[in-house]
Amino acid sequence: MKFVLRRVAATAGVLLALTVLLFALQEMSGTDPAKAYVGANASQATVDGARARLGLDEPLVPRYLHYLSGLLHGDLQNSLRTRTPVASDLADVLPASLELAGCVLLVAVLLGAVFAYLTTMRRRGAAVVRSVLFAGAAAPAFLLGMVALLVFYGRLGWLPSGGRTSFRDAPTGPTGFLLLDSLLTGRIDVFADAATHLALPALCAAISPAVAIGRVLVDGLTTNLEADHARTARALGLTERAVLLRHALRNSLGPALSMVGIQAGALLAGLVVVEKIFDWPGVGSYLDSSVAAADLPGITGVALLLGVVYVAVNTVVDVLQVLADRRLALA
Fold it and tell me: Which CATH class for the 90-330 domain?
């Protein structure tokens, strides 16, 4: 329990430091939020009125406390681009990013497990899988996405070029996750279409985390297969596959799960480029549009969201690891 409390306190400290950093970036940006909010052609009186309403005429510390209080109440300020609350904008685009991130993580875990199994057991095809994954992980995300589009959309015509679905009447609720909503509403046609739209971006984004997960799993399996308990199991007549699955895998899951957590926390940030390439209507596309429009509240809102997700996921993973192995709390 003490470890959990210490970890939660550390998480709160990191998030507080993040809010200070984002507030400082807004202050040092050189952009007048009041003028940007009312427009460049507004009169000075209108600008002054907006500055007073936004609390920008207060001293620095009260402004930060007002900013922090707003964040604690879910107020991420209003977007200068959409003229609507940033929190509302993010609520609209977040389900699309979470759906893509979930599929990416699933594909990454499967690819990493296959890579680890083939490599550890020295199965035929291990070199091919390893070469493809390593080449994909080394390639920049935009290059990998462009090549995938040229091959699977332009050349072969197997998969769509981008977007979330081809159906204009696709269900938009109740969860916001199109795959789930299409099943709940009985739209199997929309489900199949959404799955094909997910395939390319999910595969392109999954290769790099798959290599990271696979490497950790290979290291753990290799070490445990050479341990005394594995030799004893072989002496008792167990096959190499049985030793791998019953003994080595169990002791290798801890570090692998930790790496899965790290990759999961970083996924939303890593999907920014992929969402842009495949015209995916998620947080990455929202951030791209905010940067293009110099929408500082939109940019800092996305940065805060990504920071919260990353820190929260890693905190949960650390706590779960300690609950599974109490010795880690003493490390």
Answer: mainly alpha
